[in-house]
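ok new one. same drill as before - structure tokens go in, u give me an amino acid for every spot. 479 of them this time. try not to just spam alanines like last time pls lmao
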């Protein structure tokens, strides 16, 4: 970053990323992210453009702001430009401004001289940025929230690590599976964070390259199902979902979908069905739904709700057709869907599933399966869709009309010789009301989480104020 870009990066609420394709649009991600990990961060950045080389240093320090009791955010920054005639760097700002900011940097950073600060650019190169976090946060026991000792090649969240002692084999497999480890292991989380990465791109953690993990490589009895999301009758996109059993099934009690958005993981192992379908895992890239600003969830739009309904159906269908392959009792196909169910499927934009053969792999490359598995899939694909899917196809092709996008005003016309199950309609209405209640509770939970975070900040401020007053009292020899 050049000096101006550095200033914007260190400022709150500034962002030039107006495109929906860009990562970060609110101008607070870097600041809130670093401050969540530690109290202080110092940034070094080299920039080379049109033969002009600049280097900038900026400090974002919670400790500095609290100790100085400042009522506004002050970010000290110094910048230099390489002078080709003298072969050295010159100061870009006025001498007074430079010395004032430099004194703050030296007082509140881990470096005691200007030379030590400038030495940090030696391993950056002519173009690059280095961020150093210090004064990391501690938990209530006084220990660091981040664990650097358990694994010398990893950084973990200390409070979430599960200790495996004298436990059953199944419990050990579950706790040591990557689908659980990603919750506290940075290396495991980074390995599944991106669906694809360029060959020239590397993520290095504590000196070791992070190996990308293709979740589909951990599946068996893989199938691909096509889903065409629709909104008010207009087709948005086509999504190919990869679904299968984890290799460790049925020993693992893990299930859910890994939903990516523009190549980045948003929802890892998102459970859309009950715990009965253990071991069923899916992968898809849902670019047609909008993620929340923190990239940890999706906006609860109608498109997203329709996707959730379809993934739940997809999971149950896969379980009914394949559970016997991992040792469970074979499930019989369900009865033919009623005209009401067919109409509801049509109203939610659910398309009939398309099962591809094993050679089709548009999303991820599956593992090579055993000969018996291949014979099973070949035989199954030769007959086309499963009996359950055939029943649904017959149902959705029945004469059901009059479905609109507004569920409050939609009308349904059925053939005269068919009777609508009133009890089913009531259950659907009750289900819709319960779903609305769930959304209200989720919003309330988010508000409470914001309040908790605000109170934690107040507690930290009170602790710092207490330490400051205590130090002042001790200096006056009152105690």
């Amino acid at each position: 970053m050049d000096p101006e870009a550095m200033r914007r990066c260190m400022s709150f609420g500034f962002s030039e990323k107006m495109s929906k394709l860009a990562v970060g649009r609110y101008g607070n991600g870097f600041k809130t992210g670093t401050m969540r990990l530690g109290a202080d961060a110092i940034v070094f950045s080299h920039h080379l453009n049109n033969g002009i080389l600049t280097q900038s240093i900026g400090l974002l320090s919670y400790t500095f702001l609290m100790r100085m009791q400042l009522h506004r955010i002050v970010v000290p920054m110094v910048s230099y430009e390489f002078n080709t005639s003298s072969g050295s760097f010159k100061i870009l700002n006025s001498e007074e401004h430079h010395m004032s900011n430099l004194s703050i940097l030296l007082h509140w950073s881990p470096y005691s001289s200007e030379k030590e600060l400038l030495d940090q650019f030696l391993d950056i190169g002519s173009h690059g940025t280095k961020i150093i976090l210090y004064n990391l946060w501690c938990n209530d026991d006084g220990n660091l929230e981040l664990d650097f000792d358990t694994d010398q090649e990893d950084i973990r969240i200390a409070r979430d690590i599960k200790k495996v002692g004298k436990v059953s084999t199944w419990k050990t497999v579950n706790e040591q599976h990557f689908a659980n480890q990603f919750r506290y292991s940075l290396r495991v989380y980074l390995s599944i964070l991106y669906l694809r990465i360029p060959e020239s791109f590397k993520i290095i953690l504590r000196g070791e390259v992070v190996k990308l993990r293709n979740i589909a490589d951990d599946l068996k009895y893989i199938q691909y199902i096509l889903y065409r999301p629709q909104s008010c009758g207009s087709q948005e996109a086509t999504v190919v979902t990869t679904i299968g059993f984890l290799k460790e099934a049925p020993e693992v009690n893990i299930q859910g979908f890994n939903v990516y958005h523009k190549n980045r993981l948003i929802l890892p192992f998102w459970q859309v069905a009950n715990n009965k379908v253990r071991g069923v895992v899916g992968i898809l890239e849902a670019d047609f739904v909008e993620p929340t600003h923190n990239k940890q969830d999706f906006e609860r739009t109608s498109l997203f709700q329709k996707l959730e309904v379809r993934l739940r159906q997809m999971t149950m269908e896969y379980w009914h057709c394949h559970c016997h392959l991992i040792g469970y009792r074979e499930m019989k196909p369900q009865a033919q869907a009623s005209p009401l169910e067919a109409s509801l499927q049509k109203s939610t934009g659910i398309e009939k599933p398309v099962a591809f053969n094993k050679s089709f792999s548009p999303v991820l490359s599956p593992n090579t399966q055993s000969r018996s598995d291949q014979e099973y899939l070949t035989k199954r694909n030769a007959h086309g869709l499963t009996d359950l899917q055939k029943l649904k196809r017959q149902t959705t092709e029945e004469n059901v009309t009059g479905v609109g996008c507004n569920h409050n005003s939609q009308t349904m016309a059925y053939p005269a010789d068919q009777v609508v199950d009133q009890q089913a309609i009531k259950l659907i209405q009750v289900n819709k009301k319960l779903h609305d209640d769930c959304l209200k509770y989720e919003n309330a939970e988010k508000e409470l989480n914001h309040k908790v975070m605000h109170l934690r900040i107040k507690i930290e401020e009170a602790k710092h104020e207490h330490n400051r007053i205590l130090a002042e009292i001790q200096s006056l020899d009152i105690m």
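The CA atoms of residues 448 and 454 lie 10 Å apart. and btw The chain has four domains: 3-136, 156-209, 216-330+347-393, 421-479.
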